[in-house]
Structure formats: structure tokens, C-alpha cells
Amino acid sequence: MTAIPTSSQTGHLDQQIDSPHRQGDDSWQPHDSRQLPVPALDVVVPVYNEEAGLGPCVERLHAYLSGSFPYRFRITIADNASVDRTFAIASQLAARYPEVEVVHLEQKGRGRALRAVWSASDAVVLAYMDVDLSTDLTALLPLVAPLLSGHSELAIGSRLARGSRVVRGTRRELISRCYNLILRGTLAAGFSDAQCGFKAIRGDVAQRLLPLVEDTGWFFDTELLVLAERSGLRIHEVPVDWVDDPDTSVDIVATAMADLRGVVRVGKALTTGRLPLAGIRAELGLKPIEDAGEPQVPIGTFGSPAAGATTAISPTGRTVDPDGVPPGLTGQLIRFATVGLVSTVAYVILYALLRYGLGAQAANLVALLVTTIGNTAANRSLTFGVHGPHRWWRHQFQGLAVFALTLALTSGSLTLLDSATGTAHHLVEVTVLVLASLLATTLRFTLLRSWVFQAHRRHPGHR
User: Between β-strands 41-47 and 73-80, what pairing exists: parallel, antiparallel or unpaired?
Assistant: First the structure.
């Protein structure tokens, strides 16, 4: 990797811009970053064989920052072992613009590139964006402002947040939503869009979190966000205007499989407690959550009998140690029915899209698995009022056991249909599966209420 010029690699943020939540310091005010000896913002553009699009991208980004960003900035082109003229073009851009630098890596991997540049950068705020500039640049200031002001530790652009405007194909839209649904269901992620190539992080936070992130590819973003959220750091979301690049060279299938492996690895690490996340807030000089003015809610809200007791809400809005299930069968039925209806619609759409590529049984398995993970997470939070990581993995494993019964019911219906009719019309096949899915939903509610969340309902104060 070529070296990039930096000032001192340690202690620079403490000297040039104070952390916004230093213990015992309630008078913090953001400094004028134009007077800092280092850039306020370092925007990294990771590239691999982008000789055609790199020049227009950097020129447009440089023009925007020069005209709209009021502080010192740097643009760093991170060349991921390109074999075309990308590095030569990047070098020409660096020679033309004083604010542009280039780093060349011998190995591929977006995560590897971001780790290398962010670890060496002396900027107050670190960001990155995709070279195709699919995200409208007007979202850049709202992205970095909460970090420069001290309000948040990380910020992400979201294509799934209310107010975003997105133009992309149905296939990529479905894959993105399913992936984020899996994150919510498996890692209890509170952020809405892990994959949007438009993110920022405070420099001091990056120095603490980057050594804990193992992935060097596309899962890097997700892993970083999950670890930040589990550390109690605040993640700010910005709705973006986003236009899909139809010429993207990303292998969607290979990326999806790598992401799923990453989900399993991070989930295992969180479950075993291998990651040292508990002390990160203190190491960053941030106040403990319970002392930082975060809202408190009565534990009784979630069914605990401990009168007057409270439990803290984390910066992501999730309870730290929630417990219990709210009483009221009618309300639970209404919420469960709503979640079930949404899950059924998602299941039908997924099955219809996958049916001709995978076959009936495989499409049924994949559609059921994806919607089951999301259904369990949604019912856990919305129907039964259980939030946060407490007993989360046990609930998901029990939900998967219920999924096995659901799979047997729906797959059995397909088998019976084939035995009775031979080759059924696609519409008849879907109709039978919908009916079987609705029956399975009824069974699911009974098992969730009487088995999965039974301990919460009967003994809400037990831990």
C-alpha cells in the first residue's frame, strides 16, 4: 500500500476537536473545522477497474465539496488492486487537485480498502461513497453534520428510510429488503439500510472499532454498524435520493452468500461474548448510557412487576435489559395478524420470484426461511413487546423450530397437490400454499404465545 501523508496518528482528535460527550464536560461546543491543521472530512472512494468512471466521479465530488462544504476536506481514492488504468488515472487526479490523494492496495476488498485508509487518516470525520455516485451528493452535508457537531458517532445513508427516493429494479429492491430483514431478525439490527454505499464515522470511533471488524469485503459495513450499535453508539440515518447503476459489476449471489456467512460469524461472536464491546463508550470518553440523559422507561411497560423500576434506553432506541410480554390477548391477536399478513404477502412475492429458478420446494424453503426470521423478530418486538438482546437467540431458535413445523405443513400441501392432480396450474399451486401458510400462521401464534414467550408471560420478572 502506498503511504498517504498524515499528521500524528494518535491523539490528534483530542487536541483538535474535543469529544462531544466527555465526562464532566457539559459545555462542549464544536470547533470551527476550517481552523484545524487537519481535514474535517476525508471521503474515501474505493475502486476496482474503474478507469471509465473514476475521473467524472472525482471531478464531480471535488466540485461539490469545493462549492458546498465549508471546511477542509480530502478525497482519497483507494485502488483495490486494479489491473486496468485506474491507478494511473487516480494518480493524475491527485496531481491535478491538492485535496485528492491516492492509495494503492495489492489485494481486493472494499472492507480492506476502507480499513487501510481510515486507520491512517488524520481527519475528524471519515466517510466513503461508491464510485458510481448513485447517492445524490446533497445528502453529504446532512450525513457528516451530526458527527462534526458531536451529536452522533456514525451516520449512514438509507434507501429504506421514510423520505428517501430510490430508482432501482425490483430484483435489487427485494434482495436489499430481504437482507436488512435478515439482519433485524438475526442480529437485532436497529438501522434500516446496511448496504447503501454512503456512510461516515468519527475518526476516534473508527480507531477503536476497526480492530474488531474482521471482514475485508462487502460485509465490512454491516459488521461495523452492528458492533457500533451493540457498543451503545449513536447511528444517525439520512434518507437519500438514490439511482441504481445498471452497469454494476457486483456479483449479487456471491456477495449475498458472503454476507450470510458474516451474519453467522458475527452472531456467534456476540452470543459467546468474544467481542470486547462493553468498555468502548468509556474508552471514547462518552458518558455511560444511564448517565447521558437518555430516556428511561418503566420496566412495568414490558410486564415486569417491579413497581417504579426503570430500564435504560440505548442511543438506538432499544431497551438495554427488557423483559416480559404485555398483557391483552386481543391486542396481541391484532398485531400478530398484521405481522402475519405482511409476512404472507412477502412470502408469496418471494415464492413467485424464485419458483421458476429454483423449483417449487426450494423456492418454498427459501421464502419461508426469510419470512420466518423477519416474522419472529417482528412478533417479538411488536406483538409480545420484547426488545433488545435479552433471550434473543433462544427466541430465534424456538422460532426456527416452529418454522420446521410450518415447512412440513406447506411442503406437505405441495406433495398432496402433486399426488392429487399431477401437474397443477401455477395459480392453483400458489392458492394452496397461501391457504397452508395461513393455517401455519394460526399454529405459529399459538406456539409463540404458549411456548416461545411463555416464560415472559407467566414470570415477567424472571431473568
Answer: parallel
The pLDDT tens digits for 19-40 are: 333 333 333 344 444 456 899 9
| Count of other CB atoms within 10 angstroms of residue 5 | 8
Closest Cα to residue 429, out of 416, 440, 448?
416
Cell (9 digits) for 335: 398485531
- Tell me whether residue 221 is one of the annotated catalytic residues: yes
Maximal C-alpha separation, the chain: 79
Burial code (b: 16+ CB inside 10 Å, e: under 16) for 260-285 equals: eebbeebbebbeeeeeebeebbeebb
Enumerate residues 6+ apart whose C-beta is below 8 A from 187: 226, 263, 266, 267, 270
Judge contact between 201 and 125, C-beta under 8 A.
Answer: yes
Catalytic pick among 221, 241, 291, 418: 221
CB 158 within 8 A of CB 237: yes
> pLDDT, tens digit, for every residue of 127-185?
999 999 999 999 999 999 999 999 999 999 999 888 999 998 877 787 788 788 778 76
